[in-house]
Amino acid sequence: MPPVSRHLSAEVNKAKSELIDKLASVTRFGVTTDLWTHQHMNDSYITITAQYVDITDRWHVQTQVLATRVVNERHTADNIRSVVHSVLDEFGAVRPGNVFVTDNASNMNAAFRDHTWLGCACHNLNLVLSHGLQEAPESELCTLPHEVTELIEACKEVVTLAKRTKLNCQLETLLKQCVVTRWNSMLTTLISVSVNLAELKLVSISNEDKSNRYSPSLSLF
Question: Which of 28, 52, 131, 159 has a CA that sits 20 to 30 A from residue 220's CA?
């Protein structure tokens, strides 16, 4: 049997041709795009996604990932705009009424200043939450209670400890660590600790009988 890789290019071209035909009848798109850098390879990537309403399918919103490309040039507005328009043109998706939705980075805003541009509502909300969960100086009128920041830091510390010591594998459901770039992941962390709270207490007591490795942080529970 010939290797799958020999057929990959043909399958990609076929799928791409079918998608181009499908997009040809769409009058305008919502275009979302974002950049990120691989933490180990240090390569930068951009993904371009097109959303549209399919009037032939009961007006359902369709989402098509058009491309993920390596972009190791500087992330200037001109470079971003060039890559995005190149991909849209490649798929026949350039329309005067396209709306571009990105995060609120200045280079993204500038890249689509000649088009209709919207800052992502989820990103806006995440920025508000991130700012709101930071402990503010006492001089400010509205500050986050110290008990809340203490709880958040304790939960993050427990998740880190559980992962490092393989304790996570002993739990029925895994503890999950929050990540700055993962929207609303702080809530995910708090929920994962809350769900595992009773089991964490049992495991910590059991492990304390064997050694004191877990007692510094898990004694919080």
Answer: 131
